[in-house]
Automatic annotation (TrEMBL):
Domain LpxI C-terminal: from-to ranges: 140-275
Protein name: UDP-2,3-diacylglucosamine pyrophosphatase LpxI
Native source species: Maricaulis salignorans
Origin: domain of life: Bacteria
Entry-linked Pfam families: LpxI_C (PF06230), LpxI_N (PF17930)
LpxI N-terminal domain location: 9-136
Length: 282
């Protein structure tokens, strides 16, 4: 259950994936207002007051939130960087373009900070998904019946280090290491397409259902705007890791979200895979 909030009504800007759906249903008793991002959010959010807006309609989103009585805002779900000509921008969105373009030269995280500042200047408190629903962010420990072997632990250490290094360069949040070899790193395509590429690798480089090895690690970037873009895993992540023959998944405590946690752990246990949450920096 969510903690007692310090705000009156939450606005939830819902992108793609299951994360915004889980948050909305967990917060149902507090009557959240949903802004579905056009082209990304597919759930109709039946039973909730909602509106659909383009990502470029900043003024329209703000007006809808204010009209609904929202004083707090949570961004949840994935939204890929769009083509500027497809943004359907309103006047306020157009004003934001020069700032966003300048920030874009510094990386995606800089763009996110520009977006957050715009909403904060309008009087909204921006809250991270893990603060709205604390159960999304796991603490350190082993969450599955299967534990990593010493060889797996070596892959975990290298995968976490690789993911952190990629994050330092604002490239991505994930890496896959198998028997000491970096098989894949995440860039603009996202985690799922990265995992899909692994299936095309020669069998001797990756594990199989009867001989699993290799680890997916996801960590936040050092400059991460944690209120809007924490690394996330869900059932789709598990399915792809299982298909790629990986032995398990490693996350960083307080630095990642697990959507539909019980189902994720159940699926990992059924496949004989592990989920290990390491202390930050270890």
């Amino acid at each position: 259950m969510p903690d007692q909030p310090h705000w009156t009504r939450l606005g939830l800007v819902a992108g793609g994936g299951d994360l915004p759906v889980e948050i909305a249903h967990a917060m149902a008793g507090m009557n959240p207002f949903i802004v579905r991002v056009k082209g990304f959010g597919t759930d109709p959010f039946e039973g909730f007051e909602s509106v659909e807006k383009s990502i470029g309609q900043i003024g329209g989103i703000l007006k809808a939130l204010k009209t609904a009585g929202c004083d707090a805002l949570c961004f949840a779900g994935y939204v890929t960087r769009p083509d500027i000509k497809d943004l359907q921008m309103d006047a306020r969105g157009l004003v934001l373009v020069p700032k966003a373009l300048a920030a874009g030269r510094k990386g995606d995280d800089a763009i996110l900070r520009v977006v957050i500042e715009e909403f904060e200047q309008a009087g909204l408190t921006v809250i991270g998904a893990n603060d709205v629903l604390k159960s999304l962010a796991p603490g350190a420990g082993l969450l599955t019946r299967t534990a990593p072997s010493p060889a797996d632990q070596a892959d975990i250490d290298k995968a976490l280090a690789t993911a952190r290094h990629m994050g330092e360069m604002d490239i991505g949040q994930a890496a896959v290491v198998a028997r000491g070899t970096v098989l894949a790193v995440e860039a603009q395509e996202g985690t799922n397409p990265m995992l899909d590429r692994l299936v095309e690798l020669p069998a001797h480089l990756r594990g199989q259902a009867d001989d699993r090895f290799g680890v997916l690690a996801k960590t936040p970037k050092p400059i991460q705007e944690r209120r809007i873009d924490l690394p996330t895993i869900g059932l789709e992540t598990v399915v792809r890791c299982e298909r790629a023959g990986l032995a398990g998944i490693a996350l960083e405590a307080g630095g990642a979200l697990i959507v539909n946690r019980e189902a994720v752990i159940e699926a990992l246990d059924a496949a004989g895979m592990f989920l290990l949450v390491s202390e930050a920096g270890q």
